[in-house]
Structures are given as structure tokens and as C-alpha cells.
Design brief:
mainly alpha, two-stranded antiparallel sheet
Length: 270
């Protein structure tokens, strides 16, 4: 009839957004959730945003089926593990590493001596070094806060022996820091069975099993977040001098070429 609005024709297989309910949402989500729960959660969030937009323009009811509680089954986050070198083998490993002449070998050695994260080491700049202290700026740390790292005698010696080319301590291509792949390559030449990040676990196990340093000192050295609220309220300092002794002891231990039988173990991610 003249004057009447022309009805909207949807493509075959489509449906109006006003007709989408819980059943239709689950039809999309369930197959994804069965394989990759994390992806299903992201898709659910995106669907909820689209349906909210439609509701705000009166294109569908306000009730949003994608925001229905417990729509997806709970799943446990899988803990990623890193193959770590048993601490009894660190001396023999370091002897092999120090025999390597490449700059990447010195980068890996400093990473081990400081027990820092890979990104912190690779992004390090000369301006962050002040004598025997390395201050990692907040934009490079996992916590977002600046972290002071006491440098052992060997770490200071290592830094003094490096060429200064640009602002990065370990330069890579196009003025950027060295890439993580470069560290992996030098590691594979020395030991194929372990990972770069696993050295933080090696340090943690050494400190826990062979020293009397309190747990909170070791955790501070690893720049771990404080899980206990009461402890966080009382421990406001960074225990720098205690950590200095800890890192020197670690460096001294790494210089002992002990060779003992030990199996590589997978330890939890820091």
C-alpha cells in the first residue's frame, strides 16, 4: 500500500537483533568454550557490548542475554611452567656461558646475576645505572613501579667491560634493545633444555633451600607483588641493603663451577 514503510529484508540465515536470546548466544559460545574458554569469554564480552548498543537505541529489549550470570562454565587458568636449571648446576652453566664472547652472552649473564625479568633487562638503558645500582623505571616493570636492583661485584665488572653504543646497554636493530630471540639463541648453544625465564626460579630455589634469607627479602629481590595486605602495610621499604648482600651471595655461588647430577624440572611462572 502507498505510504506504508517498506519492511527490512534480512539476508538469508540472519535474524533481527531484537530476536537474539540466550539460546542464540549459547549457540555461538558453547563450541568456542569447549575448545578455548578464554576466547569464549572475550566473544561473550563483545556480544554484550553490541546488544547493549542495540538496546540503547530501542532496537531490542533492555535485557541482555550475553550478560546473563554463569552463562559460561568456570574454568581454571592453566599455570604456565618454565623449564628451569637446578641451582646445583648454575656454576657449571655460568662457566660455559662466560666462555661465549657474544654481547648476547653478557646480556644473559647479567639477567641471571640480577634475577630480573627478560623485558627489564633487554630494555635497560645506560642512564638507569648509577655505580652499583640499577634503577628500572616503572614503565618497564610488571608492577608499574620503579625497582632498584643492587649490582654484585661481577655485575659491575660486566657492565664496565661493555661497549657503549647508543642509549641501550644491549642494543639491537634500529636503535631498539636486543630481542629476546637473541637470548634464546645463546642459551641453546649452552643448554637446550631450559628457558630464559626459568633462571628466576633457579634463583628462588637456591635462596630458599641453601640460604637463611627471609622469604620477603627474596620476594623483594624478584620484584614480586606482596599478597598479604598486613605485610604490605608494614613493609614499605625496599630492603635494599639486605638485598645487596643476597645478590652478592648469589653471584658468588654462580661463580663456583660445581658439577652435580640433577634433573631439569618445570617450575611455576613468576
Amino acid at each position: 500500500m502507498a505510504g506504508e514503510p517498506c519492511p527490512i529484508r534480512l539476508p538469508e540465515g540472519s535474524m533481527a537483533i531484537a530476536d537474539i536470546g540466550v539460546a542464540e548466544v549459547l549457540l555461538v559460545l558453547d563450541p568456542i568454550a569447549a575448545k578455548v574458554p578464554e576466547t569464549a569469554a572475550r566473544v561473550k564480552h563483545r556480544m554484550a557490548l553490541v546488544l547493549d548498543w542495540a538496546a540503547s537505541r530501542d532496537l531490542r529489549p533492555q535485557e541482555n542475554p550475553a550478560r546473563r550470570p554463569r552463562l559460561l562454565p568456570k574454568h581454571k587458568n592453566r599455570v604456565k611452567h618454565f623449564a628451569a636449571l637446578p641451582y646445583a648446576r648454575i656454576g657449571a652453566f655460568m662457566a660455559k656461558l662466560r666462555a661465549q664472547e657474544e654481547l648476547s652472552a653478557r646480556a644473559l649473564e647479567l639477567l641471571i646475576l640480577t634475577a630480573t625479568r627478560t623485558g627489564e633487562l633487554l630494555g635497560a638503558r645506560w642512564e638507569e645505572i648509577d655505580g652499583d645500582t640499577w634503577t628500572i623505571p616503572g614503565e618497564h616493570t610488571k608492577s608499574g613501579k620503579a625497582h632498584r636492583v643492587p649490582l654484585s661485584d661481577r655485575a659491575v665488572e660486566l657492565l664496565r667491560g661493555l661497549p657503549r653504543v647508543g642509549e641501550h646497554i644491549f642494543p639491537g636493530r634500529a636503535g631498539e634493545g636486543m630481542g629476546e630471540t637473541t637470548l634464546r639463541k645463546v642459551l641453546k648453544r649452552v643448554d637446550f633444555s631450559i628457558t630464559v625465564h626459568g633462571f628466576r626460579s633457579t634463583f628462588r630455589d637456591w635462596a630458599a633451600e641453601t640460604t637463611a634469607y627471609p622469604n620477603h627479602v627474596v620476594e623483594q629481590a624478584l620484584a614480586h607483588a606482596i599478597g598479604n595486605g598486613v605485610e604490605a602495610a608494614y613493609r614499605r621499604g625496599d630492603l635494599f641493603e639486605k638485598r645487596r648482600r643476597l645478590m652478592q651471595d648469589w653471584s658468588d655461588y654462580c661463580s663456583r663451577p660445581l658439577i652435580e647430577s640433577a634433573e631439569v624440572v618445570a617450575l611455576r611462572k613468576s
